Amino acid sequence: MTTAFPYVRYACPCTETAAPPLLGKRSSQDVETEQDEGLTFNPHDQRANFSLYPLDQLLFCDECNHTRCPKCWTDEMIYWYCPHCQFDVPSSSVKSDGNSRPSSSSTHLRPDGGSSSNDSYILHCQYCDWSTLEIDVKFSKPSRITEQLQKAWKARYGAKEEKDEEDRKQHESPGTQHDATFANLQRFYKDQLSESGDQPNMYSNSPYSSPANLARIMNLYGGLSYNALKKTREKPQPMREAGGLPEGLVTYTEDGIPGEEEMIEKIKTLGLEGTASEEQRLTTPQNYDTRFQDELWPIATPLRVRRGKRCRTCRQFLARPEHKVGSMRYKIRLLALNYVQRLSISPLQPTAPRQNPSFQLRPETLPEVKVHPHQTQQYILTVRNPIFETVKVTLATPATTPGKVASKVTILCPSFTVGPAGDMWDEALSASTTSDGSRRAAMASLTGSSADGDRQPEAGKVWERSRNTTSVILEVVPGAVKSPPKIVPDDKQEEELTEDDDILEIPIYVRAEWEAVPHDAAGHADHKGERESREFAYWCVLGVARITQT
Amino acid sequence: MSSRPTAPNRRSTKNEYIETDTGNKISRRAHIEGKQNIMLGGKSVLMAGVTLRGDLHRLQEQSEGDERSKGPVTAINIGRACIISTNCTLRPPMRIHHGTMTFYPMRMGDNIFIGHSTHVSSIHIASHVHIGANCVLGPFSVIKDNCKVLPNTVVPPHMIVPAGSVVGGRPARILGEVGDGWGQGQTGGGEEEWVEGGDLRGVVRSIKG
Ligand SMILES: [Zn+2]
Ligand SMILES: [Zn+2]
Ligand SMILES: [Zn+2]
């Protein structure tokens, strides 16, 4: 996986089984006893993949005071629409007609009127130049393509199947009917039994039922000689097996499966590339039995759906899009971004000018972010506050990172406050131009060392502070990816490193506490002075860099 | 030598962009044809090596008289705070109509990021769209609002990408949806806060020289 470093992922507390979400009355002092609350979050755990999200994909339920992820919200269909013509499709017709728009064409197939014959249209892909001519399908009009396709399909395969059935009924009658066949078979064997049984039936009343036994006995007691018996038996037809359809025998020969020979021949000439892939065959039921690419049937555009999201616990809407096709507006949208303190991390002494990997402006390849084992790295960890109250933040992190590569982590100042967010974006914009952060960074990169370069990170001190952000220093001593060679080889203790085990990921437990106007008292003047304390805590994971092997 | 290596460099990079009254930044190394047919909404950036084919526009009908031919025809219309990265090409789509080649104007909304070396022939790209590097957006393709086009994607001609989609692959397919928080969460203009699909003014401001 190519991940751009650094990144921050947030764990939705709903997935925590060991450490329950800390809501309400807990004091901040027991962050140190965080071990008691359960296991630390292990980002290398296989389950972690399923509980970590970028913050912009999480929602927040203000009723439950809890982030909500796809596992703890429920989806609700707001409307269906055709992505091609951008029309709303009523849900009733979705249910009756299926999940595709009857009048639209496939994703990148479109009616092409340019075909020479008049009043005849084809579907043509302008990406790979495939057209319905390859499957010999033409349309009489450029609308209602799906309907016409369906008709063409039926005319070709539906009718053929029916015809086959009828043919067989006429010529091979009554071969196709199982009951009739069975009846024939039964009749045949009954006849056979009676016919072949006719001659030795002279002893049929004897208790010695087996003719061979009987013959031996008769021989012993001087009746008809064995040979004589044999002779008499040769006269009638010996019992034989059913030999054809009228006798109820249906045989499956090579030409029993129609086209199998041709199919093998075709594979011989076309090769494996000519066969349809599983992915292609599974696109639509009409292609399930398709073996070759030149027989694949085009599919109609699947409809898209716009979904709302509800809290699984209290059922309130967390995200409710406007009911209008193409609109990305929301009637309700409770984003975790607006509730949860956001972390970001950057090296204290950047080796290269920082570049946001999302906004790479030039074709040059970005240098890989790597750290070396046992070399102490210092990072600026910034906590950004989205809410309009000053927040007391306490950070906790395990002393060594969980996983197979143990790195030492120290947060120099784990407890601090972060100022309230302002409401004007532009205000923040203008503030950031005058803020010295970027300028200082620019200066540092220009001169190599600035006045600030002398400043040393101190334990217990906040590194930098702006209106709604506070930065502290995080120290990491990356662990060795490979344990040092042992004198005595010990296979058992050597754990096999798997993919991404060498990524330095730091789990951090964030707890934010603040005072807020109570929900129910927000509108009342007489409650104005009242404030209640709130708290929200969660795990997040900082992806810092890859640790080099050496 | 080593004492002042930056001086000549700095002057040349200072001249890299021409800034218009509305805050557009146009690289001197951009190739722009048919300037009079190109509209830039303001605070948008055209980087070095970008090619804009404003010369490929719909021909004006001569018979219509003077009134119609007064203003230039728009071939490419780019909104506000759009970033067209290095070596991109914007070419209005063309189709043969009644035997003549007809170019259709390309419309682009606001806050669109286009990664480097991408070729665009779309008829319309809405707003808050993030397009990766090395993509090909085929003629008459449409990218609706809040979409993300992954790097190296080939969007076939005429494909319509519905709003809020993530597309990728060759040919492009809809791979998923962007999060509900697409483009949100910016409280300032700092680099660590730039988000895909967000307000790109901060990114635009950082492009200097
Ligand atoms: Zn959850
Ligand atoms: Zn194709
Ligand atoms: Zn809830």
UniProtKB/TrEMBL annotation, chain A:
How would you summarize the oligomeric state and partners of this protein? Subunit of dynactin, a multiprotein complex part of a tripartite complex with dynein and a adapter, such as BICDL1, BICD2 or HOOK3. The dynactin complex is built around ACTR1A/ACTB filament and consists of an actin-related filament composed of a shoulder domain, a pointed end and a barbed end. Its length is defined by its flexible shoulder domain. The soulder is composed of 2 DCTN1 subunits, 4 DCTN2 and 2 DCTN3. The 4 DCNT2 (via N-terminus) bind the ACTR1A filament and act as molecular rulers to determine the length. The pointed end is important for binding dynein-dynactin cargo adapters.
Organism expressing this protein natively: Zasmidium cellare (Wine cellar mold)
Q: Where in the cell is it found?
A: Cytoplasm, Cytoskeleton, Microtubule organizing center, Centrosome; Cytoplasm, Cytoskeleton, Stress fiber; Cytoplasm, Myofibril
Q: Locations of Basic and acidic residues compositional bias?
A: 158-172
Q: Which InterPro entries match?
A: DCTN4 (IPR008603)
Main location class: cytoplasm
Which residues constitute the signal peptide according to the record? none
This chain belongs to the protein called Dynactin subunit 4
Note whether Cell membrane occurs among the keywords. no
Q: Specify where the region named Disordered lies, as residue ranges.
A: 93-116, 157-179, 431-460
**Per the similarity annotation, which family is this?**
Belongs to the dynactin subunit 4 family.
List keywords of the entry alphabetically. Acetylation, Coiled coil, Cytoplasm, Cytoskeleton, Isopeptide bond, Phosphoprotein, Ubl conjugation
Q: Does the keyword Translocase apply?
A: no
TrEMBL record, chain B:
- CDD domains according to UniProt: LbH_Dynactin_5
Localization per Swiss-Prot or TrEMBL: Cytoplasm, Cytoskeleton
What superkingdom heads the lineage?
Eukaryota
Q: Where is this region: Disordered?
A: 1-23
- Which positions make up the signal peptide? none
Under InterPro entries, the record lists: DCTN5 (IPR047125), Trimer_LpxA-like_sf (IPR011004)
Tell me which UniProt keywords the record has, alphabetically: Cytoplasm, Cytoskeleton
Provide ranges: composition bias, Polar residues: 1-10
Its family remark reads: Belongs to the dynactin subunits 5/6 family. Dynactin subunit 5 subfamily.
> Under which name does UniProt file this protein?
Dynactin subunit 5
Q: Which organism is it from?
A: Zasmidium cellare
